[in-house]
Specification:
Length: about 725
């Protein structure tokens, strides 16, 4: 039976949170302001007692990415355990034979059904493999659409040409009315394939696919006959799993008149998007999505306000798409501190009884622990008075989260004491780099002054966390890397359509590093917006002659071509801004980059990457171990530092946590109780997605994608790798 939610309870809770926002916003101008504000914890009688879903036995299958609708990546299989994991060896490796072209990074957690593994390839195909041998059974190549781009609020938007099942897929077993199908997103479409043949199911949408307006990335979930998913560029959707017809749509940036629209003083057109994943309570018909920050990142005058439903966990009625509750971590996020990961649906002991909850890890290093039905926090959720902005036209919220329980699992504030001491030279280099830097708790970005902080790549990121329902323990990988942001003036008029001669030269010779929209890709390829306020024509031409850093000297150009390119870069080849365009203050960031020392290592003290175990029953962090190592540093006698990582953990009933994603290209097994590393193996490329655990016959396997590349920009390849114990 579907759980009946009392609308007045949910409405009252939502109004309570909204009232807190209003109070906090008004407090900015008051002389006497409380340093802290707190959302109280749910009272014991308000907690939702467990209804027994899902059963432990259901965790023995892996028919949806992330291990099932709870997104917990837990397996009841225990053939591989702490006593024998040291004997684990490679069982098979699959190469899609895509040649040596450009590969996508596979971030998908694969599924296994009746001895067949399904997942994407690094060359944009969907494949079925014999899960015991890695032998390919069939292959399907989704149709590619033409590229279409437009500017929205100065940000280049594009219809995604994303790879199939980038963050997940699922198997729907069918029923009396319809056959079984594989469902996944690719580009701007949701696809349904026959699991046996790999052919599109013609009755689904248009010849096997149905349009997803905001781009497909996350792995969806099915409640009864409704496939629930989210768009990469925003919104959540419900589709008929049989026909492919869209049934409902929830706006993550509310339309005028919708709940939450008043939290946008200037309505944004992008952001508040779910790009990490989602979960579904099948017993109650509630879908849970997590959302990112409003856009553009780092600069907020174009989207003033608290910006619902950015940085939120949102509970939706799976049947209608109606919002049941939401919980927002960071208001008006200008730091790119998204809630990036799938929610975990957990059952834990709290106040003496078992309760059903949602655990949501965040980039900021928090774990939001919320009642699954009401959204109320299980621990008091504290906010602290936040710094005001020093950027003209920016208005920062009065309060930001300062959470005590559950205990944060990552550093949240960069201070001078965090600067690396790996060597005296490394320390001096970073100290000099940051001598005029802006830093501190929720320090807003400043004009022409670098701001250093933790966060854009985590804390947690899209791999999220795994959860052991037997113990109530959550396992989460994280990064602790400093980044540097600088705000600059950006009052360039938009480029003309069609392109001027200067823009054509730019797109041919410069866009590969500085991007087609001139927004750059970090410290070594900074944004070129507002360049006329920072450099003269003569200085730019001098750079063209010599190059600088990673930028080589410019290709040969005629005098006329140099003039045309300069006119484009300095915004002289287009009309000036109109009075309407001048109303809002116009800034952008110079482009952000990692904080590195003089030898290219992270400029902060270790750990640079870690695996954490959090007891959700108590909110206490039980252990934290470094994840990954730099061999050169280890051989030099430096204790393991951990590395940047994007892979994610999977936990099993064998008492093991499997994890990869580190720059040393290893997969590891840790003792789930202590964090002790028990086994490791080298992968052909960096592990690029979380492991799946499954059995074929009487043999247990651990499989993951090893393709490198992507966010960490390391060498790329094309492999699925499976491990098992030796056959007797």
């Amino acid at each position: 039976m579907r759980y009946s939610i009392r609308s007045w309870q949910v409405f009252g809770w939502a109004i309570g949170i909204l009232g807190f926002w209003v109070f906090a916003g008004r407090a900015v101008g008051d002389e006497a302001v409380d340093p802290y504000m707190t959302i109280p914890a749910a009272k014991p009688e308000e907690l939702t007692s467990t209804n027994g879903w899902p059963s432990i036995e259901s965790y023995g299958k892996w028919t949806r990415s992330l291990g099932g609708p709870t997104s917990n990546r837990f397996s009841t299989l225990d053939q591989i355990n702490k006593g024998n994991v040291s004997k684990l060896q490679r069982a098979w490796i699959y190469d899609s034979d895509a040649g040596k072209g450009t590969f996508w990074t596979i971030e998908c957690n694969p599924i296994v059904v009746d001895g067949v593994m399904y997942g994407p390839t690094a060359s944009d195909d969907m494949v079925a493999l014999n899960a015991a041998t890695g032998t390919e059974l069939w292959r399907y190549h989704p149709q590619k659409d033409s590229y279409d781009a437009r500017f929205v609020q100065g940000t280049l938007m594009a219809n995604l040409r994303d790879m199939p099942a980038r963050r997940g897929l699922l198997f729907w077993p069918g029923d009396a009315d319809a056959s079984a199908r594989l469902i996944f997103g690719a580009g701007n479409w949701v696809y349904a394939l026959d699991p046996k043949s790999g052919r599109p199911i013609a009755s689904f949408g248009q010849a096997g696919r149905t349009a997803l307006p905001m781009g497909a990335t996350v792995g969806g979930a099915v409640w009864k006959h409704i496939y629930v998913t989210a768009g990469y560029q925003g919104d959540a959707f419900g589709y008929d799993v049989i026909s492919g017809k869209m049934l409902w749509r929830f706006h993550t940036i509310p339309d005028p008149g919708e709940f939450g629209s008043e939290t946008w003083e200037n309505r944004g057109d992008f952001g508040a998007n779910c790009w990490g994943g989602m979960a579904l309570d099948e017993s109650r018909g509630i879908a849970y999505i997590s959302t990112g920050s409003p856009k553009p990142n780092f600069i907020g005058p174009t989207h003033l306000g608290d910006n619902l439903f950015g940085n939120c966990v949102i509970a939706l009625d799976a049947a209608t798409g109606k919002r049941l509750w939401h919980f927002q971590e960071i208001r008006h996020d200008v730091w790119d501190l998204d809630i990036p990961a799938p929610p975990n649906l957990v059952t834990i002991m709290h106040d003496g009884r078992k309760v059903d909850a949602v655990a949501q890890v965040t980039k900021f290093g928090n774990t939001l622990l919320l009642d699954r039905v009401t959204g109320k926090p299980l621990f008091p959720f504290r906010f602290r008075r936040a710094p005001a902005s020093r950027l003209k036209g920016e208005k920062m919220p009065a309060y930001q989260p300062d959470v005590q329980m559950p205990e944060p699992f990552a550093r949240q504030v960069f201070t001078p004491d965090d600067i690396t001491n790996r060597t005296p030279a490394a320390h001096a280099f970073v100290v000099n780099l940051l001598k005029n830097a802006n830093m501190g708790w929720f320090a807003p970005v400043q004009l022409n002054r670098p701001t250093v902080f933790y966060g854009p790549y985590g804390g947690a990121n899209w791999p999220g966390a795994s959860f052991d329902p037997r113990t109530g323990r959550l396992y989460v990988t994280e990064n602790e890397m400093g980044v540097v942001i600088t705000a600059i003036v950006d009052d360039d008029p938009p480029p003309l359509v069609p392109m001027t001669a200067g823009e054509k030269i730019y797109q041919q010779d410069c866009a590969s590093c500085h991007r087609s929209d001139r927004r750059g890709g970090g410290a070594e390829s900074p944004s070129l917006h507002g360049l006329r306020h920072r450099l003269t024509d003569a200085q730019i031409m001098a750079l063209w002659k010599t190059g600088r850093g990673l930028m080589p000297p410019a290709p040969p150009m005629t005098e006329e071509q140099r003039k045309e390119l300069l006119d484009f870069l300095m915004a002289r080849d287009r009309p000036p801004l109109t009075p309407e365009q001048k109303k809002l203050p116009r800034f952008t960031s110079k482009g952000w980059g990692w904080l590195y020392d003089n030898e290219g290592y992270p400029g902060v003290k270790p750990p640079w990457g870690a695996l954490n175990c959090l007891d959700l029953n108590t909110g206490k962090l039980l252990w934290k171990v470094v994840l990954g190592e730099y061999d050169v540093l280890t051989k030099a006698g430096i204790p393991k530092t951990g590395t940047e990582n994007f892979g994610g953990a999977t936990v099993t009933a064998g008492g093991l946590v499997f994890c990869a994603g580190t720059l040393d290209n290893k997969i590891r097994a840790f003792d789930a109780n202590t964090g002790e590393e028990l086994w490791s193996a080298k992968l052909p490329w960096r592990g690029s997605g979380p492991p799946s655990v499954y059995a074929v016959g009487d043999r247990e396997y651990v499989v993951l994608a090893a393709t490198g590349g992507g966010t960490l920009n390391d060498p790329t390849g094309d492999a699925w790798v499976a491990f098992a114990l030796p056959q007797r």
